[in-house]
Design a protein that fits this description.
The chain is mostly beta strands. It is built from 3 helices and 55 strands. Strand 34 and strand 35 form a beta hairpin.
Length: about 725
Amino acid sequence: MQLKIVLLLVMLATISIASTFSQSPDSAFEDDGTNVLTEVSASDDVRATLDVNLFDLTDYIESTWSNNGIPAGSTINSVVYNFEHYETSTTRVDLSVEWWDGSSWVTVCSPTESLSEVTASCDLSAYINTVSEANDISLRWVATRSGSGALLTTYYAYMDYENITIVYTPPDTTPPTWQNQGQNTSTPAEGDPVLLYAQGKDETALDYAVLSTNETGSWVNYSGVYGSPMDMGDAVNTWTWSNFTWQNTSITTGTKVCWKIWYNDTSNNWNSTNEMCFTVGAIGPEVWTDKGIYNATETVQIYGTGFGNNSIVKLWIKDNLSSNAVGYPQNVSTNSTGGFSHSWGVNYACPGTYYITVVDQNDDSLQASTSFLINYTISTSTLQKTPDYAEDDFGDATTDVSASDDVYAVAYLFSWQQENYIYMNWSNSIPAEATVQQANITLEHAENVNYLYVDYFDGSSWAPACSLTISSSDFTETCDLTSFITTVSKANRVELRLRGVRTSSGGGTRTMLLDYALLSIYYNTTPLCTAFPQKSVNTNYAQYSSCDPRMYFTATFYNDSEQAVTEYATYELLNSSKNIIQYKSAWASPTYQSNFYLYDSYAYGEWYLRVKTSCYSSVFPFMIGEDGTNVWKINISFEPDKAVYTKGDIFNVSFLVLDLQGEGVSGLGGNIYASVSGTALTVNDDGNGYYSALVNTSTLAEEDTYYIYVSAYTSSSVIIRNMKSFYLRKPV
């Protein structure tokens, strides 16, 4: 692609607006050769005169407009010929205007004659519509004798002034502009991708963005590589991002790669960003596992590479509370190429996310980490049953709905009756420790009612579960009950009814028939051994004295099938470093209530409540506010996840606001604020308790540490705060 490089001192774009050419002619002669340019060049009552009679029927003034200077590539919007004139007769003189089209004179209009001086116009836009035609125009203003007046009488036509007005749009010659050029790293490892980006804008229409690099030794503009070219969608006067992912495994360590982005508009104007560079570094250490999810008795195979040759690395395995697995950390030897392998048996370790960190003991800059998940395998069972009992208008209909045999349960809707029902129930024996996955009811039915529903009884009232298809003959369909039958207790006692509805009193008796009903429940026969969901934790803070503040907990925990936890458990109060401050044990009861004692010296801040049983350990965060009230907490993370940036980088910062139960708090609106270096950031609500803001480092001084401050107001106007820092270095 041939690029035209435009060098701009100030990169500004302007919309191509219409321009106007309006001038009197360059020359004007009567048909007898008389020069009348002076007479027709100004509205001054000094006029050119045409005379016509039976001996000279036609007279004219031929005028030219030459080299009008309209730029090539312009669009001709309109061409109008204007003139001031009057005639001595409106019945004996006919006026016309002729245009020379390059080969002949063409009549383009017939002005109206006038006995007093008037200004007239003739629209030539339909004839003159190209730049070449508009730049050289020849016109004749023609007077012709008409009618049968006195033979020797001469009639006159006078022209005082004439001009041509051309409205045109010059070609777009302004190139696109750009801003916010950046890259997500200036030192990628060999083979790693690099995100290259900038924003482009054009006042007319931004067409394409093209990535150009010098990695081959000369500048190459890429097509079909790295996502280039990128269609900018003809965006008009809008800053539009162009993002390219550079990745070339053949570029070796130490190579400096420079790049720029070219933008063009729909008028084929081009402009490029500055050159920006990154240097490919050596492949850093990596650690990984043979798979991502493990079961209770499996072995985690851990692999590493890129560490020191024949060195010793320290390997940690930690759970989500930063607690070390038994026997860890361990020292592991690397081979002659800096690699290693290591095995760890899960051995029924608590389910959840585990983190591996490896640090070379001879060079602590060589370190890497990864994570994996432990999740015990479970099996799924299915219960399928016809009703234990069914009832229709005639009483017990259990047998009628137990098979697809055209023996029906029947319900009638008489003219005075709006609804009627066929009732069914099931008593099941799904194990108490099971987890319900899915439930539905399959029905074979026929009816001539207006509406047909399946209703579910929740123990206190009926609720519509789904609407069925009306059919005059046997029709089989399934109703999903998963949102209603969510626990084992609900699955073991199911009550449903088939409800028919008629909307009018006319039309005689309506009938509802049910031939077959089958309940299907799918459930896990082995309980998941994961952290039990927290259903309720209430915390109350009381100030008894200056040195005896107390935190009261009332907590109820449920397992995955919503059965209350009844086994022996311990409760631990952890500080912000997750160190155990106080410890409580609990008996076999689903609800635990006790109190912990906090002291003013460290009462304010972040706290955790950890609950441990034989199967799991789970932690729930909460905050103690400045005034002793319970408030939320804010987590801050960078995207990409690093703490050192290069001046000019643009990156996203995410804020996760958590309530006392560790759930995201969304919808804070204007109650959450963020700033960097004293400048407020625009905070966006990304949903589910996540908020984000874009940080642009182009205005910050390099070689300095900056702090992102985040604060939010709770419903009780208590302020939560958090802070995170990043370092800004110079561009490469």
